[in-house]
DNA sequence: GGTACGATCTTGCGCATGTCAAGATCCGAG
DNA sequence: CTCGGATCTTGACATGCGCAAGATCGTACC
């Protein structure tokens, strides 16, 4: 009897649980995601998950890592699809916002302070965050090669913040997705205005 | 016997509950805020809140309105404290981020899609959101008087997004508060670079 | 091949919470 | 003074989290 048919020892319950939870996350938010429902959807008893995740928190963190991985990958792909430096930078921002728009609950769980606290989420998330910043930093360095390391670091936080804010507002429904690109351009022009010495 | 001494009819339980919940929100996040604990802290039975709030959701929405009011007010005050248009714009952004830094859980509840959905949160929140956008719009119009209505509208979303993203990242602990101002300036300079015709 | 061990999964439990229902208490209008 | 309605209380039920103890399975070891 193969493992997948034997319903006692599932075989790869951890992945199945993650998948089940992720599909739940496509419908509802993390707050209304119960471990028991995940277990039900995976077809196991309400306590089976505890042999793979310390608690509800741990499963949500795992989902956070999952989505952060995809978010970083989406940015990377969008950036590599463009040859022009500026186009790549803009495309990465759009990818960031786009991911949040398509997976609002998944995106939310990445940055939910109740779930993923910077220092306490484990090395995987730390690595992913660093990767994300490196990705943005490289894109900025391509656009503005004259910048020093310090300046790039600051610009990374600024760009990340801008993309993140629009993503959050779009995901929450405060801003329609179509308004993002004009807003982005307008804000950049605004920057040009603000930094122009009077 | 005055109402405040009579412990049966509280007198102003709605406000007391809001205050209790708000003080809880200063410590923990909204997810771990239970109606029963709020009731305990207010010194009433676990079911008293239901005579003032339809459910847990309604109380959280009320807290969202409360904090959005303060957030808008903080921005307004910061803007009015400056005479220079650019300084006012920057100060408002700093106030936005500062509020999120000082009241991370309160700030989170404003924009929590599980709590405050744009269309369904009631007229008060709608008004506050509009007020917020008007405030930002006025600040932008002061900085760049040459902009048309459409352009300002787009710039509002862009500026709001930038401030919101930095606020979120600071509140979540991904970015230290000291990094905000340099990031803001760097991002604006970045905008100047990006919009400069090659 | 048989067996003991550990990993995996199950059932059952205590406790906390959200929400409904019914009763107790108090205020104020008439 | 009485009665209605608002306010608050106790009680109950369903659900969820996480612990504990038992059942089942794979496998390393003899």
Characterise the protein shown here.
Two copies of one chain form a homodimer. Chain A has 198 residues and is mainly α. Chain A contains eight helices and no strands. Chain A has helices at residues 13-25, 35-42, 56-80, 85-102, 104-110, 123-143, 149-172, 180-195. The longest helix of chain A has 25 residues, at 56-80. Chain A is elongated, with a radius of gyration of 20 Å.
Strand and helix map with partners:
The structure is a homodimer of 198-residue chains.
Chain A: H1 13-25, H2 35-42, H3 56-80, H4 85-102, H5 104-110, H6 123-143, H7 149-172, H8 180-195
Chain A binds a DNA duplex (30 and 30 nucleotides) through α2.
CATH superfamily of the largest domain in chain A: Tetracycline Repressor, domain 2
Largest interchain contact: A-B, 58 and 57 residues
End-to-end gap of chain A: 78 Å
Cα-atom radius of gyration of chain A? 20 Å
Category by helix and strand content of chain A: mainly alpha
Instruction: Look up the CATH topology of the largest domain in chain A.
Output: Tetracycline Repressor, domain 2
Question: Concise description?
Answer:
2 copies of one chain form a homodimer. Chain A is mostly helical and 198 residues long. The first copy, chain A, is built from 8 helices and no strands.
Highlighted features:
homodimer, 198 residues, Arc Repressor Mutant, subunit A, Tetracycline Repressor, domain 2, 2 domains, 0% strand, elongated, disordered N terminus, DNA-binding
């Amino acid at each position: 009897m193969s493992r997948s048919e034997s319903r006692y020892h599932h075989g790869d319950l951890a992945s199945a649980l993650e998948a089940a939870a992720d599909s739940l996350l496509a419908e509802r938010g993390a707050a209304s995601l119960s471990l028991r429902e995940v277990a039900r959807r995976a077809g196991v008893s309400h306590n089976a998950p505890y042999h793979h995740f310390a608690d509800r928190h741990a499963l949500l963190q795992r989902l956070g890592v999952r989505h952060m991985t995809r978010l970083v990958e989406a940015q990377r792909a969008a950036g590599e699809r463009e040859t022009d430096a500026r186009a790549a930078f803009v495309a990465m921002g759009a990818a960031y916002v786009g991911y949040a728009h398509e997976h609002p609950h998944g995106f939310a769980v990445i940055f939910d302070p109740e779930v993923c606290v910077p220092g306490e989420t484990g090395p995987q998330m730390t690595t992913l965050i660093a990767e994300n910043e490196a990705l943005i930093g490289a894109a900025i360095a391509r656009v503005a090669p004259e910048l020093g390391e310090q300046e790039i670091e600051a610009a990374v936080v600024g760009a990340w913040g801008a993309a993140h804010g629009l993503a959050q507002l779009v995901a929450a429904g405060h801003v329609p997705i179509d308004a993002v690109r004009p807003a982005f351009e307008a804000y950049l022009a605004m920057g040009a205005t603000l930094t122009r010495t009077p």
